[in-house]
Fold each of these.
Amino acid sequence: MKKTHGRAEHYNALTISRLHKSGVLEHGYIGGWQWDNGKASIGIKTIKQQLILNYTSKGKPFNYPVQIVTTPCNYGGVRYWFECPNCHKRVGKLYIAENLMFECRKCQNLNYATQQNDKLGSVTTVLCRLRNRLNWEYENALPLPIYKQIKPKGMHETTFQRLVARHEYIEWKRNKICVQNFKAFAKRYGLESELLD
Ligand SMILES: [Zn+2]
């Protein structure tokens, strides 16, 4: 899948440093968060290292927990991060989009692909999600060469083996759909005999 830029800017984003400066990350905080345009706002409740985001959309109430993580700074103190509720990576920003969930930019772009809602699209999304989780570099959903399939630092060996096996299966499934699509295409245009060459 190609990287897309600029899309996330259209969404309302939560920025960890701004929440921190405003005291939202302190345990016991109850209040709201409004975006600059004043058109959108959410409620936030902070319980220990967790933010509970409260909002209503299309008449449906959301109670969305987001985990806060900290890492030590070189000069003392800590740095705050969101843990993306979908891919569990540490990020400084979360975006809300059409699916009404707060997720990192990478996940939002993948969700956009899911909305296309075709077989190939959804299997591709699963594939890219796995690669994100494995921290593997990729430009698109084509099969990855084996030398790119390195175990991420700190990942447990059994987790890694499980994800690699799943990745292999999903990649195979995706290739199969591609071949099916291609065969259907050839049939539609009367090119089946060309495939046998
Ligand atoms: Zn994410």
Amino acid sequence: MTIKQPFHDKNHRSQNPSIIVVGGGPAGMMAAIRGAQLGSSVTLIEKNATLGRKLLLTGKGRCNLTNAAGLDVFLGSYGVHGPFLRDVFKIFFNAELMRFFEERGVALKVERQARVFPVSDRSGSILEALKKELQARRVQVLFRAEARDIAVDHKTVTGVVLATGQQLKSCHVIWATGGKSYPSTGSTGEGILMASRWGHRVVPLRPALVGLETRQTFPGDMRGLTLKNVRLRFSNGKKQIVSDIGEVLFTDFGVSGPLVFSHSGQVVDWLTVPHRVTVSLDLKPSLTEEILTQRFSSDILVSRHRKIKNTLKGYLPARFVDVFLRQGGVSPDKALCQLTLPEQRALVRLFKDFILDIRGARSFKEAMVTQGGVDLKNVNPRTMESRVVRGLFFAGEMLDIDGTTGGFNLQAAFSTGYVAGESAAMRR
Ligand SMILES: Cc1cc2nc3c(=O)[nH]c(=O)nc-3n(C[C@H](O)[C@H](O)[C@H](O)COP(=O)(O)OP(=O)(O)OC[C@H]3O[C@@H](n4cnc5c(N)ncnc54)[C@H](O)[C@@H]3O)c2cc1C
């Protein structure tokens, strides 16, 4: 365990901090800052040698820290668990988060779909601002310090036990150890397992915002190709999810990209029972089958001897045309005038319903977030305090909350962290 000096002020600290925060991600850092702003002496424990490793990866290194949308959009972005966040958003929402960074010299900008990024396009600017504030508030940060357990007496927390066996005493502990995704960043899900040992119910962990593997192998031949302006329809035979219009990316293993991510959580759940799960690509969502049929017929009239593969290059990216024709059972070198009526119908149909079978999802190693975690019924939504162990607070992705892409996950981490820090400080 090392104590990084800039964050450590020996003269200022009493021996036992009034709050211990476990986990130096966005939730833990914000919890520590808020606790310290309200006058508590705070110790932040991080098992890595640095803070915010995952934060640095966010938004492809640019950090989509929140979204400029209103409360209703936010609450709808976390599925059934959205309403749990209503109370914390009343205290610390996107406007407060943006002000927090702007007041500390980080200029922000709003991009498409109301996504908020630092003007620098560097997640490092967000992390630096948090680190400076921790330092200014004299938060003591213990690096390479792994928490293994909490100490409890009569259902009340009394401290944190480190992997070394050392016990740090405090009657306010904020547990913000993250989910299970991208374990290389330090979030391995162990903190959630510990919470279950202390009597909390844990909703099983599953990867979300993750790519989906297809039974068909041809996506691998087109890896890196993005189809724009498509709509996806996921189905398990009983239920369907229809996406917005957007992009799909072909990869080594299948499909990925924002539209796939957004619905992957639900699809992962479907895959737990043996059903045929499919994704159908509508390659021309703004055109009906009738209009496509008319366009095709006029192509045939105008260029009777043109090869079908050349005509389709006007409709689809060139790299996709061969695969498309193979799926439609039509030879690429056929002239338009040789196409039979059933072949024409099959191709028009394929534009609207290009089906791939989903056989699995990528693992936690690649998932952007974790579904599942500490059951929200065990947590007071106004304070983030555990309903099982007094003085123990939870924050961030270790809770059973996950949002779609667009800055919603970081906002949830910052907001729950802020409220946990505030509640712990007020309880002193
Ligand atoms: C590639 C990628 C891109 C993403 N992009 C975005 C984005 O642009 N916008 C967005 O909103 N969300 C994004 N997310 C999701 C977002 O990063 C997470 O939801 C967020 O980091 C969760 O914050 P947290 O503080 O709860 O947990 P984490 O950031 O996971 O932090 C938890 C910390 O706890 C530490 N820890 C764990 N166990 C212990 C222990 N026993 N003792 C001491 N320390 C411990 C870990 O080392 C880690 O530092 C992205 C995620 C990934 C993987």
